[in-house]
Write a structure and sequence with these properties.
255 residues, alpha/beta, Aminopeptidase, globular
């Protein structure tokens, strides 16, 4: 595929959204799976449009949650607008699902035989713009949190978690978040996962490895059961809980 320079620049601009870039909060929020857009030149990668409304394409609910946390904490946030089917920013280029060839056994036609030129083009509009947005915002930050959601059932297993904190290093910031959630969440009927529903120690992930751990910044992946986003009456309490716990933890880290 060949695209002119103006189109490449436009697509790169559309790949990322930055909230509150000027805020001096100690915390930076990332949301790598906020959007479900596949850039038009790739024609939905040959998939039926219905697939772009599923968890394969993005993390339902996290766009609104990240915006609420950014507002409540007055913290900058970087959101990826392109679907992880097109390119998953939170995966390394060598990972099979960086540009995944199937969706649970359903082939993704446009990802079955990707040329090196196409890979480089996708990186130029869906990796490099995010890196360029994130790196300047790291200066002076004390911690980074990446916001995600997960499916309540995986391979027939009902995950007994509502909010998960996935950590690679259980530093004081992570411990403070976990303690705050475990203290407050039961009153709201929410179950807390300590490195659950996934254990970050068992896998690598690009965004917080690159922008958190490798820079010596405390960081974790915040995972929310996407069934909660189907209960709008609970969302104000969820937003308040997470905002208050993160505020307490980042102040504790900053002092």
């Amino acid at each position: 595929m060949e695209l002119d320079a103006d189109t490449v620049e436009r697509l790169a601009v559309d790949a990322v959204e930055v909230l509150r870039a000027g805020e001096i909060s100690p915390l930076l929020l990332l949301c790598e799976h906020a959007g479900a857009v596949i850039p038009e030149p790739w024609r939905n990668l040959g998939l039926a449009p219905a697939f772009l409304s599923t968890h394969y394409a993005y993390d339902p609910g996290v766009d609104g949650l990240t915006r609420a946390l950014s507002e409540g904490l007055q913290a900058p946030a970087v959101l990826a607008r392109y679907s992880r089917i097109f390119l998953d920013y939170n995966r390394f280029a060598s990972d099979w699902d960086h540009m995944r060839p199937d969706l649970g056994g359903i082939p993704v036609p446009g990802n079955l035989d990707i040329s090196q030129e196409d890979r480089a083009l996708r990186a130029s509009i869906a990796v490099q713009p995010l890196d360029r947005a994130i790196v300047p915002l790291l200066a002076g930050r004390k911690a980074v949190v990446s916001v995600h959601s997960f499916t309540p059932v995986m391979a027939g297993y009902h995950r007994p978690v509502d909010i998960g904190v996935l950590w690679r290093e259980k530093d004081p910031f992570v411990r403070c978040v976990l303690e705050g959630l475990e203290r407050r969440a039961p009153a709201l009927g929410l179950r807390i996962g300590d490195n659950a529903p996934y254990d970050w120690r068992e896998v690598e992930a690009y965004s917080l490895r690159t922008h958190g751990l490798d820079r010596g910044l405390p960081c974790f992946y915040l995972e929310v059961n996407n069934a909660l986003f189907l209960q709008p009456e609970r969302l104000p309490f969820l937003n308040m809980l997470l905002t208050e716990v993160l505020a307490e933890a980042i102040e504790g880290k900053a002092t």
